[in-house]
Specification:
Chain lengths: 306, 306
C-alpha cells in the first residue's frame, strides 16, 4: 500500500487535504511533526509522497514548505487541492454557549475566528494549543470548554459541534501540494499550474528579465514571492507560480530561457490547477502556433520561403 | 508626550523594536491586541504612530501588516528597525535543566528553537501560549517550568535565564516599521528603502512592465510579494520594496510612471534602511545625471544644441 506522509497531527486541515488528494482506502496516511519532517520522509524513501500546506489566503505562504522544496534534493508537486478555511467549534455534549468559559486552539486559528468569538463567546478566555487537533483533545480531557478545530476533528469524536462553518474571512482558503521525488510529470489538463524557484544575479533588472521571458510567451503569473537565501546576504530566491504546463512549447521555451540566463532554476512541478480557470494562451503563443513557427523556420533554413 | 501603539502584549519582540525606534523616556508606549488594532489607533488619531512587524526571515511576511497598510486610509512608514530573532529561556530561580518537565511559548517561537530543545530539554513537553510574554507569566505562575521568550521578557522579572541567545537559524531577523499618517517624508540618507503597493491589470506581462519601469531607472528591488486582493478573484496586489528614496529623481520618475500605467499605486514610505547597504545608482541613473539630462532637454526644446 503506498505510504503518504502529511503535516500532522491527525484530524487537522492537512489530513483533510490529504484525504482529498489520495484515496485513504488504498493509501496509508502517516502524520509527521513538521513540514521538514514530512519532506524528509519522501527524500529518504520512507514514504511515496507527502502532503504539505503551501499558501493560505489569510496567513500568507508557508515558509517551511517553500524553503523545504527549494533546498535539499529535488522534489516535485504532482497535484494540489484548495480547502476553504472554515472552522468548527467543538464542545463536550450538553455544553451551551453560556457555559463556555475557555476556548482553545492554535493561535492562528484563534486569530481567524476573532470576530465570531467576540460576537458569540465574548467572555471566554483564550488558551493556546500547538494544533487545532490538540484543542479538541484539551476539550475532551476537560482542560478547556470549547475548541476551534478543522471540520474533520468532529468525525469519530465524542465532542459535539456548537457551531460550524465559522471564520472571519468568508473566502479564506489554504492550498496544499502532493509532492514526491522527480519522475513522470502528470499529463497536461488544459488548466495547469507550473511552479518554479529561480535564483538570479543580484543587480537591478534581473527579476524583470525573468518576468519578461514569461510575458513574451504569453504566460500568466499567478503568484510571486521573494525569500532571502540563507547562503549569502542580499541574494534572493524567487518563487513563481504561473498558468501552463511544462509540456506546452511556450512554457518549455520560457523555462529553457531561464535555465540559460539565471543562476539557478528548479522545477517544482506542473499539475492540474485547483483554484480557478486559466485564460487560454494569448494569440501567437499557443501550441499550434509554436509548431507552425518551427516548421516555417526549418523551411526557411533549408532555403525554402513559403 | 507622543503616544506610540505597538503589537503587544508588553515584553515581546515588538516592544523591544519600539524601544529602538522611539525613545521610551519621551514617548508613551501603548500595547495593542492585534496589528489591525495598532494601525486603527493611528487612523483614529488616538496615537501618533504605531510599530508593527512586517517581515521575518524564517516565518515570512506578516500578512496583517501588509493588508493593513494596503487597505483603509493611507499610512506611511517613516522608520524601520531589524531585530535578531534570538530567544531566552526563562525559569523560576533555582530550576535546573534536569527539572524542566514542561516548556511553553507561542507555537512560532517553539518552532524556531526546536533543535535547541531536542538537544537541551529532550524530555520537556511543549505547551502553547498566545505570546512569548504569556509564556513568562505561565512560568511565574507555576503552570509551566520554562518559557521561550524575547530577551526583553527577562527585564524586571523574578525569573532567571536558563539559556540566552538561542534559536535554530543563526541569522534570523524580524523587520519592524514605525508608521503614521502621511505627512513629511524623512529626508534621504543615501541608504534608503522605499515601499509601495501596486495593483495591475490581470494580464500576462503586467507585472513585468512594473519591474521594467524600476529596472530602466537602475532601481534595485529588495523584496516582492503578491497577495490576493479580497475584492476580486484573480486580481493580485504586489508589495515591492526597493533601494532608493522618493526624493531621488530616478525613484520619482519610476513612481510617476507606475501611477500612469497601473490600476493603483500606494506609497508606503521612504526611510533609512536598517538591513544593509544599498548599491549606488548604476551609471546614467544618479541625481546629477537626471539633472543634467533635464537641462539638456530644456536646451534642445528651446532650439539650442550643445
Amino acid at each position: 500500500m503506498p505510504r503518504i506522509a502529511y503535516l500532522g497531527p491527525e484530524r487537522t486541515f492537512t489530513e483533510q487535504a490529504t484525504r482529498r488528494l489520495v484515496d485513504p482506502a488504498t493509501h496509508e496516511l502517516i502524520p509527521a511533526t513538521t513540514v521538514a519532517a514530512a519532506l524528509e520522509l519522501v527524500r529518504l524513501d520512507k514514504v511515496d509522497a507527502a502532503v504539505v500546506p503551501v499558501e493560505n489566503s489569510v496567513e500568507g505562504s508557508v515558509p517551511p514548505t517553500l524553503d523545504g522544496l527549494a533546498l535539499g534534493s529535488p522534489l516535485v508537486a504532482i497535484a494540489e487541492t484548495v480547502l476553504p478555511v472554515r472552522f468548527t467549534v467543538l464542545v463536550r455534549p450538553g455544553t451551551k454557549a453560556a457555559d463556555v468559559r475557555t476556548v482553545t486552539s492554535h493561535p492562528h486559528a484563534l486569530a481567524q475566528v476573532r470576530e465570531w468569538l467576540a460576537a458569540n463567546l465574548p467572555n471566554a478566555a483564550e488558551l493556546a494549543t500547538t494544533s487545532t487537533a490538540a484543542a479538541a483533545v484539551a476539550v475532551a480531557e476537560g482542560t478547556a470548554d470549547a475548541a476551534i478545530t478543522a471540520p474533520i476533528a468532529a468525525e469519530g469524536s465524542a465532542l459535539t459541534a456548537l457551531a460550524a462553518d465559522i471564520g472571519d474571512v468568508a473566502d479564506a482558503v489554504t492550498r496544499f501540494l502532493l509532492v514526491r521525488k522527480p519522475g513522470l510529470v502528470p499529463a497536461p489538463t488544459g488548466n495547469d499550474r507550473t511552479s518554479i524557484v529561480v535564483v538570479t544575479e543580484n543587480r537591478p533588472g534581473s527579476l524583470s528579465e525573468v518576468l519578461v521571458e514569461l510575458a513574451l510567451r504569453g504566460i500568466d503569473l499567478c503568484r510571486i514571492e521573494s525569500r532571502p537565501t540563507r547562503e549569502k546576504l542580499g541574494i534572493y530566491r524567487f518563487f513563481l507560480d504561473f498558468a501552463g504546463h511544462i509540456a506546452e512549447p511556450r512554457v518549455g521555451e520560457a523555462l529553457s530561457a531561464l535555465h540559460r540566463t539565471c543562476s539557478d532554476v528548479r522545477f517544482l512541478g506542473s499539475f492540474a490547477r485547483a483554484d480557478g480557470d486559466s485564460p487560454p494562451p494569448p494569440p501567437g503563443t499557443g501550441t499550434a502556433e509554436f509548431t507552425e513557427a518551427a516548421q516555417w523556420l526549418t523551411q526557411v533554413r533549408a532555403g525554402g520561403q513559403a
